[in-house]
Amino acid sequence: MLWDALTLQLGYNATLVAVGATLLGVSAGVTGTFLFLRKRALVSDAISHATLPGVCLAFMVLVAFGGDGRNLPGLLAGSAVSAWVGLLCMNWLTRNTRLAEDAAIGAILSVFFGLGIVLLTVIQTMGVGRQAGLEGFLLGSTAGMLWADALIIAAGGAATLLLVLIIRRPMTMVAFDPEYAAARGLPVHRIDLAMMGLVMAVTVVGLKIVGLILIVALLIIPPVTARFWTERSDRVVLLAGLAGGLAGYLGAALSASAPNLPTGPIIVLVSFGFFALSLLFAPVRGVLAAVLQHLKFQRRVHIRQGLLALAQGQKIYEPLTLRLLTRAGLVRADGVATEAGKARAAKALRDEKRWEVVRADQAHEATAALYDGLRDIETVLTHDQIIEIDRQIGGPQGVPT
Amino acid sequence: MSGEEFVPLSLTPLLIGTFAAIACALPGNFLVLRKQALIGDAISHVVLPGIVVAFLLTGAISTWPMMLGAAGAAVVAVVMIEAIRRLGQIEPGAAMGVVFTTMFAGGVLLLEQTDTSTVHLDVEHALYGNLESLIWLDAVGWSSLLDITALAGLPPELSRIALALIGVTLFIWLFWRPLKISTFDEGFARTIGIRTGAVGMALVITAAIAAVAAFDAVGSIIVIAMFICPPAAARMMTNRLEAQIAWSVVFASLSAIAGYVLAGYGPLWLGGADAVSAAGMIATMSGLILACAALWGPCRTRAGAPSTA
Amino acid sequence: MLELAADKGVSVAESGVDDSPLAIRGMTVSYGQKPAVFSVDMTVQPGAMTAIIGPNGAGKSTLLKAALGIVSPLSGQVTVFGAPLEQQRARIAYVPQRASVDWDFPTRVIDVVLMGLSRQLGLLGRIRARHMARALDCLHRVGMRDFADRQIGQLSGGQQQRVFLARALAQEADLYLLDEPFAGVDAATEKAIIAVLKSLKEAGKTVVVVHHDLATVTDYFDHVFLINTRKVAEGPVAEAFTAETLQAAYGGRLATAQIDQISRALG
Q1: What is chain B's percent helix, strand, coil content, to nearest 5?
Q2: Which residues of chain C make contact with B237, given a CB cutoff of 8 A?
Q3: Residue C243's closest chain A neighbor by CA?
Q4: CATH number of this structure's domain A2-262, picked from the four choices 1.10.3470.10, 2.40.150.20, 3.30.420.40, 3.30.200.20
Q5: B140-171: pLDDT as tens digits
Q6: Is A122 on the interface with B (CB under 8 A)?
């Protein structure tokens, strides 16, 4: 069953949903990346909640003019307008009052959503028969998706991707360093608005499939996931698109393969699965890698510090240092240095003195900047340079370099 | 309106709405000042999975397990956000977004998977509660306030939210100084021996308790709106924390009362027949108050603090 | 040959550790994979005014923050007046670098100074007339008495710095730690602050200041502590603040002309 779903053989509607979800995932991942890099990920939360009053108003207008209240383009247009109004309100609050962005986001999302609920209850009392579809916009409903709906989603997603492609450079620059971008003459405020506009477009397009509460997940989780795997912004964009698209596709297929598996939540959970794997296992930035690296680093610091203390005949206070030295065979159980320990300690002390010479000497300025207390001097100076320094220090020669 | 009509039908919803609004606005003041306003948003989203899990475990709609489940979910969410933020070196907003959307999705999925058609448990109820139905059927008028048998018939939501309000107030009163100092200047707080991490966690747990108790009665919209809108509006009225707290209580009560009255009677005045969602209207009113404060509040703009760069 | 800390070995480590106002042993602090402070020992002399100096990014503020437990070190021990830090919190007052505070916070100048009394007031103690009088007196000592009712963000940088000094005064501590108090303040503020610090010293208090301006070291301080990730030198200004130690701490980063100027000033 799942295999049938993955190979798009579960019938017309399931295929439509899978294709739509994949496209949505790609465009949400790509667009969300810029928001995430700009450190404004939760703005999407405000935008998505702010669509609700627009959907309701559009429905009321459509019905008032005798049309079909469930006309998807009409409802999406309404949601876009109210999301845009919400966005402008939020921007105004952060620019003209003392409110921080998070408070502005929270205020807009709760107030617009509250207003939307009021309008929803108004619609329920209007006695119009066909309002049932509106609740679907909260959590998405793919059950009755039409060919025309899928076309709109596909076209919207493609248009968003195209726009992102066109303005990706200025958006990256603004996300990375807004002040520098402004100094370069870029209209930072307008680029920000364009970024939000794209997020709004993705939100509106995604309302039908995942609903307004969960679209936020598709805008945030794939970029965060992608960030674990690369340090280059263009690759984050690509990987986020990939992660989002894959989550959309797998999620839609999974949800079609069994009853009672709503599409939106499944897509989000698949997406989170990718995130969790990346958080734990990504090289360098992943938790596992970071923990191992930190332990290694801590050991180096303690051993080095212990050796220096030994060389200067100081008492070692840290139990961890003592334990590490003992385990390395540099110190006996009673805290006295072994022969190997004495040799390593003498070497460490001499290296420290060599570093002191290097750091006091203007000629070695670039080398001196590399000092961090741990780096072996052999890795930054040639053998001849070290001999020259030893001559300046004087004292017993013959300490191995 | 006469007491015979007001007391049984409107008094208890009004009181519950007002208590819920204040219980959320009080910790909201500190959340907004700490730039953690969206913790309220995150908490209110994860209440749904908490309740569903509690329902699955106990197999019944009973209040206390559900409130425990919701509070547990809030704590799990906060711990997860913090863990993801630190372990993954991700900015707090994004970490929050990852956690609460995922948990919400999990809640919706569980809800779909279980048969809840026989019980009153659905997403819409979770979102906007049912304030209008919390009426006091045993009351016949103002005199019922002194009638022990009638008082016993008060909706249980009222005592729960009152209890939560008392708890929140006590917490803020007791830990006023550590809260204030660690919010203003965390480094200094630590040098005088305040455990800032514990204070922050206690604040979030208090907020979660307020959210869960309020959520039970009024749904999650009021919760988010009250965490943020009254404190944000209050901040623009004064430059003193004590006064800000007082303003936020006034604004929260005002939103609750005006919202409830408008939702119940507004449509009638406009010639409509039925009331609209009280929870939604309360959130809308708090937004209007915030808009007024943002336009005319005496302290609405940032102080001329020199840039610290 | 340079006479550097490492050569002194045992004697440095053991002199006056027991009752020093602030003794740091084997302190290493790291942000990520590069230590900002590496294996540093420090022994602050009681009743002295000590400057912590070193180039940008040398770990001056980090050392202070780690000593106060604001950042957690990778290794190292701190004692304050011979006892662990946690038992001696009441005897320390700290003036942070200005950047670390929320300037938009709804609080007045007098409220900030009253925060300095919070240990005495406890959780629920009422602020009484004598507390208020003391807070106002502290504001008076830094010349900010007239600003008591202003919101903290409405002050200039120098004025804010003075308010934080007043808060530290209100703590009535024995050890005062200040992080770059003169960075970016006007001349009047600098004079006011140094006058207060000198009066503290006269009252027998110990003062430690992270300091940036080499030109004023000899005027303001009697002890210096030079750091550049590692300790470079420590001692009375006349002994430890020399062309050689400066060269060792700043390396190529300090122009030779500057060092000449300072050594001439030192005679």
Answers
A1: 80, 0, 20
A2: none
A3: A360
A4: 1.10.3470.10
A5: 778 778 778 888 878 888 888 999 999 999 99
A6: yes
